[in-house]
Specification:
There is one protein chain. By secondary structure, the protein is of the alpha/beta class. 43% of the residues lie in helices and 19% in strands. The protein folds into two domains: 163 residues, Rossmann fold, CATH 3.40.50.720; 85 residues, Alpha-Beta Complex (UDP-galactose 4-epimerase, domain 1), CATH 3.90.25.10. Helix 2 crosses helix 8, helix 5 runs parallel beside helix 6 and helix 7 packs across helix 11.
């Protein structure tokens, strides 16, 4: 891209750019008129986008990065998102989720306080007023991340928004349950393996939203979102894991057996209200079935025999 044109575009810093959401976000915002700086600690997937290596848990590294790029927008996707890992090493989860966020917003406070920020929270946050709702160190790290973001918005008037997406699905490498099912189905299609999918509880309920819809929601929040607000991003429809698998079945020629460890434990449907976001003009565009087809297609094209 011409350097003069790039200099006139709004600058967007995306942390966690090499992750599942990060890759989709980089493509989307590149195509919608932003100059992207992708923050990563590994080799990046695209040569079209500027990249920088930064250890977000290192205060001086973060300061240097913010001074160099001076972003107009920051989409903070980086972090540790595995509950199991948080039990093994809670300190690294706190560093990755809480400390990195503190360094980012504090650097912006001194260097570019008008930068509009989206911090991605989690449905697994606990209620700080009721410690009994704390279930794991990951929940602690994400709750502290959101609290520090909200505190800097209140104390220093930084334009920070918190976004809370539900369970992400869509093409790309992901550890979400739909991707786990898709990988298993593709493995059964390509290899002579046992034709069985095992699920802990078929009645478990989830709200699934396509990652591409979530990225467009982030764009809507950058343009129209209100500082200090928390926005839920979801499809608004609760689905059981049994429904997910039954949607997958017609998409493959494999006649697989389904095994469940729990048969009679019925869970309540998930209810996530997205009124604040839909009132800004956003709405999901990818039907659930289309998302599952795209996930299968991705793994069929990227799984070696």
């Amino acid at each position: 891209m011409d350097s003069k044109l790039m200099s006139s575009l709004p600058k967007l810093l995306i942390t966690g750019a090499n992750g599942f959401t990060g890759k989709h976000a980089c493509r989307h915002f590149l195509n919608t008129g932003f100059e992207i700086m992708a923050v990563t600690r590994t080799d990046f997937f695209s040569k079209e986008i500027q990249t920088t290596n930064c250890d977000l848990t290192n205060k001086e590294d973060v300061i240097r990065m913010i001074k160099k790029f001076k972003p107009n927008y920051l989409l903070h996707l980086a972090g540790q998102n595995h509950v199991g890992k948080s039990w093994i090493d809670p300190i690294s989860s706190l560093e990755a989720n809480f400390l990195s966020t503190l360094y980012l917003v504090e650097s912006l406070r001194y260097i570019n306080p008008n930068c509009k920020v989206i911090i991605v929270g989690s449905a697994l946050q606990f209620d700080p007023q009721d410690i009994s709702t704390l279930t794991n160190p990951y929940s602690l790290s994400k709750t502290l991340q959101v609290l520090i973001s909200q505190a800097w918005e209140v104390l220093y008037k930084l334009p920070i928004i918190v976004a809370k997406p539900s369970n992400l699905i869509g093409p790309g490498v992901s550890n979400g349950v739909c991707s786990i099912f898709a990988r298993k189905i593709v493995e059964m299609e390509k290899r002579d393996t046992e034709k069985v999918i095992e699920v802990s509880n078929l009645h478990a309920q989830r709200d699934f939203i396509d990652v591409r819809d979530v990225v467009t929601a982030y764009e809507t929040l950058f343009k129209k979102g209100s500082s200090g607000e928390v926005y839920d991003i979801a499809s608004g429809q609760s689905r059981s894991l049994e429904e997910v698998i039954n949607t997958f079945k017609p998409l493959t020629g494999v006649n697989f057996e389904l095994k469940s460890q729990i048969h009679d434990q019925v869970e309540k449907k998930v209810e996530i209200k997205t009124d604040k976001l839909t009132n800004l003009g956003w709405g999901p565009q990818f039907p659930f079935e289309v998302s599952l087809v795209d996930i299968l297609t991705f793994y069929r094209e990227n799984t070696k025999i």
